[in-house]
Design a protein that fits this description.
The complex is a heterodimer of chains A (117) and B (110). Chain A is built from no helices and 11 strands. Chain A has 117 residues and is mainly beta. In chain A, the strands form 2 sheets. In chain A, strands 2, 4, 5, 6, 9, 10 and 11 form a 7-stranded mixed beta sheet that branches. Classes of the chains: A mainly beta (117), B mainly beta (110).
């Protein structure tokens, strides 16, 4: 299957700082990327949908000013957690879908574990 | 959004077939069923998807009932490495969203 790469795999940051997570589709172009968050022993929760060249669409209850999403190219989307606090500690996962058709599968990155201390 | 219902957990002996059920009684006619699995601390892995016909690939088979209100994922010869949480998802029509439910934790034992 296609490869989606996230960087970094894990990050520890101090409370109040910002952290940027990158999501790249390595062997295909992705017009749409998605960002999820997963807390321990819970399922994935969709945070936002990112479309190349346009503003991201956020799910209800997700603060767009806190979780900044940029999708500047067909192979790269970034999620910046601004002014991070310990409650933002979570597993962040991106996924990307190619441009081939409507009902193709989405591929997921390996996830980024964020710990805010 | 069509919701899915899956058993919380299942066990399966290594080498035997694992049959994972999923109910999606509110599915619309043009909504696809997707299956993903997540091994601990990794991103979800795509397994298979289908609309109304049964599907098979190198990983699994997907059996969808004629009324499309339920489906079963079949891993024909489960191995220890198949231990994971399996998610059955109905893709939201006319969007690309995959909304994850709670999934089934499959434990394959020797």
């Amino acid at each position: 299957g296609a490869v989606v790469s996230q960087h970094p795999s894990w990050v520890i940051c101090k409370s109040g700082t910002s952290v940027k997570i990158e999501c790249r589709s390595l062997d295909f172009q992705a017009t749409t990327m998605f960002w999820y968050r997963q807390f321990p022993k819970q399922s994935l929760m969709l945070m936002a949908t990112s479309n190349e060249g346009s503003k991201a669409t956020y799910e209800q209850g997700v603060e767009k000013d806190k979780f900044l999403i940029n999708h500047a190219s067909l192979t790269l989307s970034t999620l910046t957690v601004t002014s991070a606090h310990p409650e933002d500690s979570s597993f962040y996962i991106c996924s990307a879908r190619g441009t081939k058709g409507v009902n193709t599968e989405a591929f997921f990155g390996q996830g980024t574990r964020l710990t805010v201390v | 959004d069509a919701k899915t219902t899956q058993p919380t957990s299942m066990d399966c002996a290594e080498g035997r077939a694992a049959n994972l059920p999923c109910n999606h009684s509110t599915i619309s006619g043009n909504e696809y069923v997707y299956w993903y699995r997540q091994i601990h601390s990794q991103g979800p892995q795509y397994i298979i998807h289908g609309l109304k016909n049964n599907e098979t690939n190198e990983m699994a088979s997907l059996i969808i009932t004629e009324d499309r209100k339920s489906s079963t994922l079949i891993l024909p010869h489960a191995t220890l490495r198949d231990t994971a949480v399996y998610y059955c998802i109905v893709r939201v029509y006319n969007t690309d969203k995959l909304i994850f439910g709670t999934g089934t934790r499959l434990q394959v034992f020797p």
